[in-house]
Design goal:
The protein has 266 residues and is an alpha/beta fold. Helix content is 36%, strand content 20%. The strands form 3 sheets. It has a 5-stranded parallel β-sheet with strand order 2-1-10-11-12, sandwiched between helices. A 4-stranded antiparallel β-sheet has the order 6-7-9-8, with helices on one face. Strand 10 (203-210), helix 9 and strand 11 form a beta-alpha-beta unit. 38% of the residues are buried. The model has no long low-confidence stretch (mean pLDDT 94).
């Protein structure tokens, strides 16, 4: 499709490529397969776990490289270039993250947080919008801890500042907040771009597609930032120059915005 140029699409999944409520992408599956057949690399860059994204790959019927748990680890880049590694880990594991968190965050603020792994299965299903069968893979986390915040704005700001000072991050998605190491979707994307530029002579263009707060840095650091319509998260709130915005929500909005981005490259 593009001579002497490589296009990488880094895409969030929930609410961006997948329908926010049903997690379906059937409506755009053929378009995704068309892109892949034309040597455009799609790299899911999600808060989802390795198991969840493997399940997405199975439904798509393709083996895609991917980034898990908000930039914590990168898998299967060798599918793009045989010289790339199969696995890159950028994050410390949960046990170390929780140890730091419990040492640095006062108990009165910790009490404002509800960790999903401590909740009943019925509550976990309701919060994540997943079936009983899919909850296990969603909570099979190695690098991030999903939680809910029950406090006021000043308390939230204080927790965020303390977490940042401790060398960790709170990543806000559509349904939950994830306690993570000092990594992000943007960190992982930059790592992939650096590897690519080191090995390949092709001109590289990056498209980043997202719909929420934890996608912002990824969008800002891409060549073509794309925002899939989310009525709770608008362009006015994010301050990204030249950001393309879809009129439709996911999954149709994903196809709409990617077509606009590729037209821009052409």
């Amino acid at each position: 499709m593009f001579s002497n140029q490589k296009v990488l699409i880094f895409s969030d999944l929930d609410g961006t490529l997948l329908n926010r409520d049903t997690f379906s992408f059937d409506e755009i599956k053929n378009y995704i397969l068309y892109l892949i057949s034309n040597d455009i690399s799609l790299i899911p860059n999600s808060s989802k776990t390795k198991e969840e994204i493997n399940e997405f790959n199975k439904k798509l019927g393709e083996d895609l490289p991917y980034i898990v748990e908000n930039g914590a680890a990168i898998f299967d880049l060798h599918l793009i270039n045989s010289n790339f590694p199969e696995e890159i880990v950028l994050s410390r594991e949960i046990e170390e993250i929780l140890t730091i968190f419990n040492e640095k965050i006062p108990k009165n603020l910790v009490s404002k947080l509800k960790f999903l792994h401590n909740l009943d299965l019925s509550d976990q299903m309701k919060i994540l919008g997943l079936s009983k069968e899919k909850i296990r893979n969603a909570l099979k986390r190695k690098y991030s801890i999903p939680l809910l915040f029950n406090g006021n704005i000043s308390e939230k700001r204080e927790i965020k500042n303390l977490v940042k000072s401790a060398g960790l991050t709170l990543q806000e998605g559509g349904r939950v907040i994830n306690l993570c190491d000092n990594v992000s979707k943007s960190t992982a994307m930059k790592k992939v771009v650096k590897l690519f530029n080191k090995i390949s002579n092709d001109k590289l263009t990056t498209i980043a597609v997202g719909d929420n707060f934890n996608d912002l840095e990824m969008l800002k650091n891409s060549d073509i930032p794309c925002l899939v319509f989310n009525d709770k998260f608008t362009l006015e709130t994010i301050n990204i120059n030249n950001c393309l915005v879809s009129k439709k929500s996911a999954p149709e909005g994903w196809e709409e915005i990617v077509k606009l981005a590729l037209d821009k490259i052409k």
